[in-house]
Design goal:
By secondary structure, the chain is mainly α. It has a single domain (10-189, 204-395), classed as MFS general substrate transporter like domains (Growth Hormone, Chain: A, Up-down Bundle), CATH 1.20.1250.20. The protein has 17 helices and no strands. The chain has helices spanning 3-7, 14-44, 48-75, 79-97, 103-131, 136-161, 167-173, 175-189, 199-208, 211-217, 220-249, 255-283, 285-306, 311-323, 327-336, 343-372, 374-393. The radius of gyration is 20 Å and the shape is globular.
Length: 410
Amino acid sequence: MSTLAVETPQRSFREVWLITAGHMMTHWYPATFYLLLPLIGADLGLSFGQIGSILSCQFIAGALSNVPGGMLVDAVARKRLLMAAALFWVGIPYVIMGFAHAYWMLLVCAALVGIANNLWHPAAIPLLAQNFPRQRGLVVSLHAMGGNLGDAIAPLVVGTMLAVLSWRDVVMLNVIPGAIAAVFLLLALGRPKGDAASPHAARRKAGAILAPLRMLLSNRIVLMLSLGGAVRAMTAATLLTFLPVFLARELGYSSAAIGGCLFALQAAGFAAAPVTGYLSDRMGRRRIIMSSMAMSAVVLIFMAIAGRSPAFVFFVAFLGFFLFAIRAVLQAWLLDATPQDAGGTSIGIMFGTQAVGAAAGPIAGGIIADHYGIMATFYFLAAAIIVANMFIFFTPVPQPAAEQRRPATV
C-alpha cells in the first residue's frame, strides 16, 4: 500500500476551510476596486481607456511576477507564512490609493496589488491538490468558491458603505479585514512538522531551481490550459471592469445597485464552483469546461443584444454561473499533469499567462468602447470566450498520477 493511501484518509477538511476563508479575503480587495473604479474615474476625469489601463497595469505586474512567485513557493516550505504575507500585502496598496490624486499613483498601486496576489495562489492551490489527490477537483473548487464569495460579498458591503462614505474613506477602512485574516490564518494553521525546508527545497537552492520551469514549458497540457485560461481571464477581467461602468453611466445605477449586480454575478459562480469541481472529478475536466465556456458565449451574446433594457441585468447572474465556476477545474486539470514538487511553478505559469490575458482585456475593451460604443465590448467578450474554448478542445487529457504523489506540508 502506498504512503498516499495511508495518509489521505487522515486529512482533515479543516485546512480546506481555513485556506478557503483566506482566499476569500484575497478576492475581497479587487472586487471592491471594480466597484470603486467608476467613482475614481469620475473624480479624476479618466477616460474609458485610462480606467481599463489601471486594471491592465495590475495584471501586467501579475504576469511578470507570477512565475518567479511560483518558483519561490516551490523553493520555500513555509507556505503558511507566504499565504499570510500575501493577505496582508494585498490590502496595503489600496490604503495608498486613498491618498492618491494622480493617475500614475493609481497605476503604481495597481501593480503592487498584482504582485501580492502571486504569493497566495501558488502556495494554496498545489497544497490542497496534493493533500487531497482523489478529491482534487472538489477541494480546488471549494478554494475557488472562497474567492467567489469574496467577489460576491465585497460589492454589497462596499456599495452600502459608499452610500455614507467617500471612495477614499472606503479604501482606507478596507485594509482591516485582510490584516485580521492574515493573523488568524497564522494562528489557526499553527506550525506543522514540515515547516522547515524540505529536501525538494534544498535541491532547488543548490542550483536546480529552473529545471521544473523548463520541464513545464515543454508540457503541451500546461501550455494549452494556460493559454485557454488566459483568454478566459481576459474575458472575465474586461467584464468586471466595464460592467460597473456600463451600469453606472448607461443605466444610471447607484453604487448600491451596482454592488447588487456584481453580487449576483459572483454568487452564481460561488454556487456553481463546488458542483463543477465535483462533476469534473467524475465526468472529466474537458467536458465541464467546454460546456461552461460555450454557455458563457451564448449569454454574452444575449447581453449584447439586450443592450440597455432590463433584460441585460437578468443575464448577468447566468453569466456568473458559467464563467466563474470553471477557474478551479482548469487549475485541477493543470495539477493533474504536474509533478508534485513543481505545483507552485505550474500555477505560476497559468496565473502568469492569465495575467497577460487579463492585462490585455480591459485596455482593449476600453479602446473598443471609446471608438465603437460600450456595447461593442460585450460582443468582443463573446468572441474571446469562443477562442478560449478552442484551446480547451485541443488540450490532451493527462493520465492521473495521484498514486505517485504525497501530501504536502502547510
